[in-house]
Amino acid sequence: GENMSTCFLFGHANTPRSAYPALVEAIENEISKGTKIFYVGYHGNFDRMAIAALRLAKQKHDIVAALVLPYHPAAYHIEKPDGFDMILYPPLESVPPKYALVRANQYMVRTSGNIICYVRHFGNSRNLLEYAQRHCSSITNIS
Questions:
Q1: Cα–Cα distance measured from residue 53 to residue 48, given in angstroms and rounded to the nearest whole number
Q2: Mean pLDDT computed over 134-138
Q3: What does DSSP say about strands 112-118 and 64-68: parallel, antiparallel, or unpaired?
Q4: d(Cα 119, Cα 92) in Å, to the nearest integer?
């Protein structure tokens, strides 16, 4: 990743609720290191927990929380979560929809300085972690 003041969060859609305290702690740790902008998707348990944890962090810290949309907002309407600052649509216009999520995630990994993830088993999140290990020096896997 490039920008050390940014963090992208991702994890398995079936991440257990028990991971939430570690997620809150990992976000606090990133903030203490100077991370200002946090990006997260909206696809499963991990993303829901990350949205909640970022909302909590925003009550105490001056950070930016952004929802990442892999599909163009005009084609796929998603409400911005309460307390979030912005929606980010990565530049993916030429990518077929079935690849859009993977490509959006790879783009976020490449352009973010820090990663917080929950990755235990095989699947898209494991593939993305392996991709992140080639592109990003600061990775916190809370699993």
A1: 9
A2: 91
A3: unpaired
A4: 25
Tokens 């911005």 sit on residue = 80
DSSP 105-138: HHHHHHHEEEEEEE--SSSHHHHHHHHHHHH-SE
Query: Among candidates 5, 10, 2, which has minimal Cα distance to 130?
Result: 10
pLDDT at 67 over 70: yes
The full length of the chain comes to 143
Which pTM was predicted?
Answer: 0.93
- Please give the sequence-ordered ranges of beta strands (E in DSSP) within 2-111, or none if there are none: 3-11, 37-40, 64-68, 86-88
User: Which tens digit of pLDDT belongs to each residue from 86-110?
Assistant: 988 888 778 887 888 889 999 999 9
Q: What is the largest CA-CA distance in the chain?
A: 40
In this structure, the number of other CB atoms found within 10 A of the CB of residue 8 comes to 27
